[in-house]
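[step 3/7] fold_predict: job queued, chain A
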Amino acid sequence: MSPDFTPDAPLTLALSKGRIFEDTLPLLEAAGVHVTESPDSSRKLILPTSDPGLRLLIVRASDVPTYVQYGAADFGIAGRDVLIEHTAQHPGGLYQPIDLNIARCKLSVACRADFDYAGAVYQGARLRVATKYVQAAREHFAAKGVFVDIIKLYGSMELAPLVGLSDVIVDLVSTGGTLRANNLVAVEDIMPISSRLIVNRAALKTRGARLQPLLDAFERASTADAGTA
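[step 4/7] structure written:
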């Protein structure tokens, strides 16, 4: 079934549960939109809003760009980390007009507290790196001239260096609490991460008159939040 970009169809915003959803609520409020149900208390995957012309699609964070690119959603919100991995395989498929300055953290290299990361890099050791951010990790270590073997994992990244699966991990770090609880330390920051608004290119052309006011409201709200952060 082809995407429904007819003028009267509701706009669809793809979001993931958790921090991105919670940080998006104030942006929606600033646009005059109230979310009437929570994905934490509802089993629905399509949530209504106070605006009959806008609905929310609740999907996994890593799937948000796919839903937007292929037209199942008109626009969405995804972390920079997710977008790097997606665009490595699907270059040019998405329009990314706005950094929303929400769900901020860092993509970092971490290892056991007793591992000499700087010494290993200096000596030219080949490192085993566990991560789900394969593209970002590969680009980072290539730029440093460090040879690595990438081990892709989908969760519980902190376990890998503890049981000898990897020397280091590349993962998102916010407060660092999970690292400390597992006797790991962040040894290098790769890049700051925040969530971005992404838009289906066809929807922007055919439904731009309805999309643009929301995009403008999101941008104003995110700029205001960045100024007070």
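[step 5/7] annotate
The chain has a mean pLDDT of 91.
The two ends are 43 Å apart (CA to CA).
exit 0
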